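Worked example

This section walks through a single chain of length 702. The input is the sequence exactly as stored; nothing has been trimmed or padded.
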Amino acid sequence: MKYLKILTLLFNIIGFGVSIYYKLYLLTVFLFLLFFYFLYIFAKKREYTRKNNFNKRAMLSSNILLFFVLLIVIRLVQIQIFNEKYYDEKVKSQIKRNDIFYGNRGDIYDSNGKSLAFNQNIYTLGVNPSALYDRDTTLKGIEAILDKPFLKKDKAKILKELEEGYQKRRKYKVIAKNLTEHEREEIQEIIREYHLTLNEVQFDRSIKRTYYKRDLYDNLIGFIGYTQNSNSEKVGVFGLEKEYEKYLKEISIKRQNIYTKNRKIKLPFSQESIKTNLDGKNIHTTIDNDIQFILNEEVRKKFISSGSEEAYGVIMDPNTGKVLATTYHTIYKNKALRNPIFQNQMEPGSIFKPIIVASALDANLITRASKFDIGEGRIKKYNHTIREASRSTRGILSTDEVLTKSSNVGMVMIGDKFTNQEFEEYLKRFGFYDKTGIDFPGELKPYTTPYKRWDGLKKSTMSFGQGIVVTPIQMITAFSSLINGGILYKPYLVDKITDEEGVVIRRNLPTPVRQTISKELSKDMREILEKTVTEGTVKKGRVEGYRVGGKSGTAQLSTKGGYLKENYLSSVIGFFPVDKPKYTILVMFLKPKGETIFEKFGGAKAAPVFGDIVRRISKSKNILSENISSFSKVENFESPIKNETIDVVMPDLTGFSPKEVVYIFKDTNIEVKIKGVGLVKEQYPKAGTPLENIKEIKIVLE
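Given that input, the structure is written out below as tokens.
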């Protein structure tokens, strides 16, 4: 027995040392306690021999009981100390929940603060079938929710599915989708009434992106959707939504919180996060919704009436590069995901001619007084005959007349004065060899050929806008530099980006790229282009009472086999007011129809649209007519020298705005009474009536 005691203790000591060496800490604790247990047993041995049989059995029983207590202690040590993290997670997994916090995607506004793209929260309502009978009120509350008429659900069918889910211990069942904020609030009232918990009923929120007048803005604002790299989250796929994705994108945060068993109350010891704004930033565009509407409507009307295949329009502030409006129409239902204003290249035709004339004037190769003998209206270049579009264009033309009459032959003669290298340098100066850098995704890179690879005819055809391809944004940007003082600006669509408090975090400022022509030459170009409207090919673009300038164009459409007969790109590019241009307007129609060839030309198809756009913008923006100055004599019809009256008659006010009428009579003793809204439809007294004794006039607006 003595040796058994020694061997037992020795075994415990060796096992104790081995368990420590191999880091078997639970075994170490067990052997340590077992060692003292045996010491206790051996210490009680003598006392055991002196006991009677009853006491011996009692002592033996207590020793056995002590051994089991020892095992329980070891198990408790294992759970509370060595497996503490495991069981802690087990407990928390039954009461913790992953909460996802979402921000809102940033809004997109026009230049006047009108929302063009904004968010609507929509909700999915889910029920936990396994908790259906946890409380008496749970099923009653769900039935009350299903009674809501806006859910339009088969109540019996849903309850049957929930019952099946309960039997299979399912945790989630969707019972309603696409709920609005108002509908969600109605259901929340039921949830509060029946004291339903998050463990029984819950809402999952998602965002529905809403766009203002998709037909106006779909090719510009774009849209959001899923991509291969978006990780099941909607991101900007096209347009400004894509270009400014990193600013517009909302932030989502997933946090794990610990609740009471019914998940109704968050436990106070769960971690609280620092509050942060999760919303995306707001984009403020340069687009003017009023001008956008005017441009879209006028281009669309002509697009339909002319039977064109496609139509494009863009309006720019020539003094900053701000794009104020764009529009695009096509007969093709499945139109490509692109915006032709920035992503289509086309031969511009005669609207390109002012660029070449200005370049030749800037290089001192010609003057405005230069003469060009175009003879019978044809010229032969490299075995190719170039003719005038109009048979009436003949004889000797000045530089101004080359543009006003849109002479192809005259433009070839001007082009001949350049070397190929000089010609290319001016094309580069006006930005036709580079992207404009506009903040729109996928702007098309210009297709260009170095001058050393030009054939003999290349420069001649480019002189009148054929043989070179440009995007509409390139064309209007270059043209704007002709009439704004000679500065080529980088065009842009977004004015500023703000946070939720309206603080500007980024602003796009007008960016001058380079000087294309001198300020003096720019003034000359405005005069020439005004003549083109009053005397030349853009006569149908004239606007009564306003000074406007511009150039029409008619480009033959090319294919791999040559140019298509009687298929044209009809266009016009213009600006107003002439003295201080505020708007540059480009309008294009692809393959317009007409009974004669001339009805398909830019001067016939596009020029009237330009005039209508100018009229509507001038009224919308209260731009005073140039004719108002001719009525200024009304202001002083009493002679300052003699007490005599000047013979002044009532002007025709039809079509004027109230502001213009008040301006005309602002310094007279005549009182102006106005009825209605809009523009002047009727006036009293009538036009031509002497104003000698008139003290009051009335105008009726419509």
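What to look for: Residues 628-647 have pLDDT under 50 and may be disordered.
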